[in-house]
Amino acid sequence: MECEEIFRCSIFKKKIMNFRSYILFFFLVLGWSGIQAQDFRNSAPKPGPAPKIEIGDYETFTLKNGLTGIVVENHKLPRVSFQLFFDLPLIAEGDMAGAADIAGDLISKGTTTRKKAEIDEAIDFIGASLNTGASAVSGASLTKHKDKLMEVLADVVLNPSFPEDEFEKIKKQTLSALAQSKADPNSIAANVARVLRYGSEHPYGELTTEETVNNITLEDAKAFYNKYFVPSRAYFVVVGDITARDAENMAKKYFSSWNGEKVMESEYPMPERPASTQVDFVDKAGAVQSVITITYPIDFSLGDDEAIATSVMNTILGGGFSGRLNLNLREDKAYTYGAGSQTSPDKYVGNFNASASVRNEVTDSAILQFMKEIEKIRSEPVSDKELQQAKSILAGSFARNLEQPQTVARFALNTVRYDLPENYYATYLEKLSKVTKEDVTEAARQFIHPENAHILVVGNKGEVADKLARFDSDGEVNFYDAYGQKVEMEEMGLPEDMSAQDVIDNYVAAIGGADKLQTIKDMTMQMSASIQGQNLETVIKRKAPDMMAMEMTVSGMTLMSQKYDGQQGKAVQQGQAVPLDEAALAEMKIQATLFPETRLEELGYQMELKGLEMLEGKKAYAVEMISPTGNKSTEYFDISNGLKIRSVVANGGQNVVNDYDDYREVDGIKFPFKTTVSGMMPFPLTMEVQSLEVNTGLEAAEFAVE
């Protein structure tokens, strides 16, 4: 309740509106750029013969231990980059999902001869970069510092010390990132789509969760490194101001003594598409937009005969501003800022994915248009104009990429990994020019399957879910949590004699009872939170009947303050007074009220019991409230104990969600000591009560407005 009031304040609303205006301007600029780009395509030039292209040279070598080297010389600038790429097999981590990523991060945190600080200092001193991960270690520097860089890079790869304190730090950072991703609908959509597409038993369908991270030990990280960081699985890719001979000599110098057992491939069944169209839903409380993802697995690898025709097909369907999906959903219907699709090849299993974020009220209409365009691409020939435009886009992108020496290295790596013909990329434009409309239709029929797709929506269940059953082949929507675990939705009917006031009365009784609440004459609460390493402190004081003082500081500096003495109010932001109109003062008066649930009718609230909902496995009454100033919110109360567990507050077109937890008793009254706020910032903010005192005899002078 307390955090909710902080984030309702008008000061924050102004900041949010300014931020939204910037984002809107950004997208408008993008939109205008897209429109301008389309004008010159109205009369596409006639295709000429495919130009002959020269792919930059590269050389390869192989050491006795199996390490394969790929060298691309480019002497335009005195810089060189090194990468060790590990061509990992499919790896099932099971209940330790995330161990690979932690191990990849950890190897740069110390070696048998260098501490983390010494590694960082050595890299910074020569102005180089060094990055490590589960499948790659890379670095770049000026040519004159290449040996110093390679000395550190090789030390990190061959001699990691796996310091336990750094391991615990990485686990903590991983858990923090997971907490943020659980509040991000796009991250939720990506995670659940993986589980639906591949199945939780396939390595591609495994997700890193709080539970799996907590299961990971230091020995698990070491085991991953020892098994998979082996030369027979590694490619040493060198690009820049260096000769092939020097690169090979460096590889021999630093990696010839590197050994490891050969890693065998593990076999997993090919994931299958759903037998029929399946609608899947993840509830995101308070969401004002739905993230739509239409997806399924496909048997599609780089270098397949139909690969180039498939890229043409997808460019027409969902490739950028000129794709059919974007022209329909954005330009024609104005449902979204952007819609697109990808047909992605992979060494083991590819996937089709089409997506967009749309307003709640048009979610079902947007899905209808998605399915219409997806069906159309495989049932009707594309136009000559679309075909030529797609070819031009792909040819232009290919030519631009060739300007980068890293592209040549990537082509060389792909040629080796996917066993492509040596001239695969050299003849790309020639093969692209020969793609016909019939080839596009054939590719669509092979890879586009709306009748066997997952239609995943992450959004507001109460406003969206019921409208989507018609797209499911059996007329039922499947519900999942943020990690792709199925949630069984019960048929929950309200008791006939239950009203919104009954729910509020139960809440008041649950936290201590009306008589007990009336004995509280003042209250002081101190709360804290961490924002990107900085400490946010908030102190709120209240005195009956309607006085309030609030101060928020960040790392000791006052960010904002508010006071209300029962009649007058004052707000200050970073030393500047903020004007308050009558509506803001009226809202302040409500916020200043101690335990407003005991006086809702007197204060002028309107209430309606909307129904029963499942929240994080708990049944909860949903009560819609409209304040005297017109602010709307939905309050959720656990039916098992009457306590408030969530509040969703409408805030200028965006909903702010407050989740309440860790109720503790103070002087016979229960207060939530933990409140998590999401929807206000890109990441959730958890406020924890550090101290809470009642009836300390606060003086009216503390609330005086000067």
Give the helices and strands, then pairings.
Elements: H1 2-8, H2 10-39, E1 59-62, E2 68-73, E3 79-86, H3 99-106, H4 116-125, E4 129-132, E5 136-142, H5 146-158, H6 164-181, H7 185-198, H8 210-215, H9 218-228, E6 234-240, H10 244-255, E7 278-283, E8 289-298, H11 307-318, H12 324-332, E9 339-344, E10 350-359, H13 363-379, H14 384-401, H15 405-417, H16 428-433, H17 437-447, E11 454-459, H18 461-464, E12 478-480, E13 486-487, H19 500-511, H20 514-517, E14 522-531, E15 534-543, E16 547-554, E17 557-564, E18 569-573, E19 576-578, H21 582-591, H22 600-603, E20 606-615, E21 618-626, E22 632-638, E23 644-651, E24 654-666, E25 669-678, E26 685-694
Parallel strand pairs: 2-6, 7-11, 7-12
Antiparallel strand pairs: 1-2, 3-5, 3-6, 4-5, 8-10, 8-11, 9-10, 12-13, 14-15, 14-26, 15-16, 16-17, 17-18, 18-19, 20-21, 21-22, 22-23, 23-24, 24-25, 25-26
Helix pairs in contact: 3-6, 3-9, 11-14, 11-17, 12-13
What is the terminal-to-terminal distance?
28 Å
| Secondary-structure-derived class | alpha+beta
**Count, helices:** 22
Question: What best-fitting shape do the alpha-carbon axes yield?
Answer: globular
What's the CATH first level of the largest domain?
Mainly Beta
Main pleated-sheet profile: 13 strands, antiparallel
Secondary structure: number of strands: 26
Low-confidence stretches: 1-45
Q: Give the second-level CATH assignment, the architecture of the largest domain.
A: Clam
Helix content: 25-40%
What portion of the residues fall into strands of 2 or more residues? 25-35%
Radius of gyration: 30 Å
What is the total number of structural domains?
Answer: 3
In CATH, the topology of the largest domain is named outer membrane lipoprotein receptor (LolB), chain A
According to CATH, the homologous superfamily of the largest domain is: Lipoprotein localisation LolA/LolB/LppX
Domain Peptidase M16 N-terminal: 94-185
InterPro entries: Metalloenz_LuxS/M16, MPP/UQCRC_Complex, Pept_M16_N, Peptidase_M16_C
Domain Peptidase M16 C-terminal: 215-394
GO molecular function, one term: metal ion binding
